[in-house]
Amino acid sequence: MTLGAALVFGTTGVIAKLLALPVFCIVILLTSVLSLHLKLTGRRAIVTLLSVKLMLFTIAAVIHGPVSNGDSPSAIGMTLVTAMAIQNGLHRAHLSKLPPTTLMTGTTTQIMIDLADLLSGTETDRLREVKERLRRMATSLLSFAIGCATAAFAFAASPSWRFVVPPALVGLSLLAPSGTPSEA
To answer: CA 177 to CA 149: how far, in whole Å?
Structure first.
């Protein structure tokens, strides 16, 4: 949709928009191969992938900063597309039982379906499952909303400092105890 708008209105970013999907797909493939290799060699894949993502966010924030021209080399460099692909691949491979961290429409849809099940009197054998999923999904959605509000306030306070928060959060997550998040 944004590619079509850029073509119709002659705005910047056409090249970046054309490259985004193939780059995203290639990075997902490479992330999956790396993750499998790390698992087979006994290394902690999730920590490695989060570290790479942290490095990419830091590059985007410190080196590139805000991109005002969608056709600039920093926009076409696909740093944030790569980081988002790593996050998607990481989630599917290592956090698959947790709600999505990158797709709030799917999470919101599931919340509404679960609420409809509860309101219509879901079968008692599924009630516990629905309530547990609803709790996980609602927590994810609330965290997303808090993150959006925090980002908006950070942007209003200082447009350039908003780039510090994502790498800081990823850095903090690397300090969390490891376990088996896919079983969470």
So the answer is: 27
- Could you tell me the two tokens for 41? 């060699």
Most confident range, picked from 16-25, 134-143, 146-155, 169-178 = 134-143
Tokens of 93: 């491979």
Q: Write out pLDDT tens, residues 110-132.
A: 888 888 888 887 666 788 888 88
Structurally, how many domains does the chain consist of?
1
Which residue matches tokens 């993750």? 35
**How far apart, in whole angstroms, are the C-alpha atoms of residue 178 and residue 67?**
35
Our CA angle for 26, 23, 104, nearest 5°, is: 95
Expressed as residue numbers, the domain containing 65 is: 2-183
pTM of the model: 0.60
Give the C-alpha separation, 123 to 6, whole Å: 49
